[in-house]
Design brief:
alpha/beta; Rossmann fold
């Protein structure tokens, strides 16, 4: 499910652009601050309905304008072009998928899977538990069709339980939501465990290609104490929950971590090695999607040449080519990115927010 085309209006320094993309490699070149990252950010927004550069939703709106607009066309696995439209105003958001309005952003999940690697943005190593949970949820939205409904059920029950806790409602009213919460939580936990079990195999395989001298381990924490049933954890923490006004334990507190050679990646690896570990994790997710016949979407690499030496750059691009992914790579100098082995390549030059295809 690659991105066939994208129309951009008033996004960052891009006044207007109408672009057609390759199903393979798309190389975006230009000087620093020209707008290369803004193009990748717009593509990411189309798939995730948020930026990878800021948590302020309206920030990408071009200075002096009321809104930015994105209209993309993705190719479904049946071969049909499907339009996705997004308009972000300073006080609101409108999203359309296949010309129908989307009211819940989770309903858009799976329509256009997108991964991004950028040196200036959070990663699974430094983005914190909330970032990692969001990354995990979006990955599961793409590979498990039933996950979205279970996740929505859990989110509703958690919201109601927390509202009762904040209102200092009687205990009976608080625990009314426990049965629904537990039922959905068990299913979420099962989906996540199964996902990590399958993902770990691919992470090991990718690490052997990029960092053969390092042994990686992937650890998942479900969101409640080990060797304790969630039902018992909820009962034991009820008084604390009521005092603090929110539910302490559950899948909403889950986290995961990566270690290499038994040590923390951030504390024991160079920045280049850290970037390679993150790439391995992301490539593993794409490989798992492919194994499960999930539409591939797009892989965004912002400034690939930063902190990765030439052999590692070539391995990353080779792995993505073998996965038959649609790839967008930004670089200052197009000669630094090897494109000869790609069957379908398009090149774009960005200058002062103007994007031109290089023929």
């Amino acid at each position: 499910m690659g991105l066939q085309s994208l129309e951009i209006q008033d996004f960052r320094n891009i006044v207007s652009a109408s672009l057609q993309f390759s199903a393979g490699l798309n190389l975006v070149c230009g000087e620093n601050a020209a707008g290369k990252t803004s193009l990748l950010e717009a593509i990411y927004c189309l798939g995730r309905v948020r930026s990878f550069r800021t948590s302020i939703a309206a920030q990408p709106i071009r200075d002096g304008q009321a809104a930015f607009r994105l209209v993309g066309r993705v190719l479904s696995h049946q071969g049909r072009e499907i339009p996705i439209g997004l308009e972000r105003q300073k006080q609101g958001l409108k999203v359309h998928f296949d010309r129908q309005p989307i009211r819940r952003l989770s309903d858009l999940a799976g329509s256009f899977p997108v991964q991004v690697l950028s040196g200036d943005t959070p990663t699974i190593l430094n983005g914190g538990p909330r970032y990692r949970r969001q990354s995990l949820d979006w990955a599961l939205f793409h590979v498990e069709q039933a996950y979205r409904e279970v996740w929505q059920r859990y989110t509703r029950a958690l919201r109601q339980r927390n509202a009762a806790l904040r209102a200092q409602s009687p205990v009976k009213q608080v625990i009314t939501w426990d049965a629904e919460l537990l039922d959905a939580a068990v299913q979420i936990h099962t989906f996540r465990e199964k996902y990590f079990e399958a993902l770990a195999l691919h992470v090991h395989a990718e690490m052997k290609m990029l960092l053969p001298d390092m042994e990686v381990s992937l650890r998942y924490q479900p969101g409640w104490p080990a060797n304790v049933a969630l039902s018992d954890a909820l009962s034991q923490s009820l008084d604390k929950d009521r005092a603090q006004g929110f539910t302490q334990y559950g899948p909403h507190r889950a986290d995961f971590s990566l270690q290499v050679n038994g040590k923390g990646v951030v504390s024991h690896c160079s920045r280049g090695q850290q970037k390679a570990v993150v790439v391995c994790f992301m490539l593993a997710q794409v490989q798992l999607q492919q194994d499960q016949s999930t539409p591939m979407g797009a892989f965004l690499l912002d400034d690939l040449t930063s902190e990765l030496d030439v052999p590692h750059q070539q391995r990353v691009l080779s792995a993505l080519r073998d996965l038959d992914s649609q790839v967008f790579v930004s670089a200052i100098d197009p000669e630094t990115v090897e494109v000869a082995d790609w069957p379908a390549v398009k090149k774009f030059h960005v200058e002062h927010g103007e994007i031109q295809e290089v023929v």
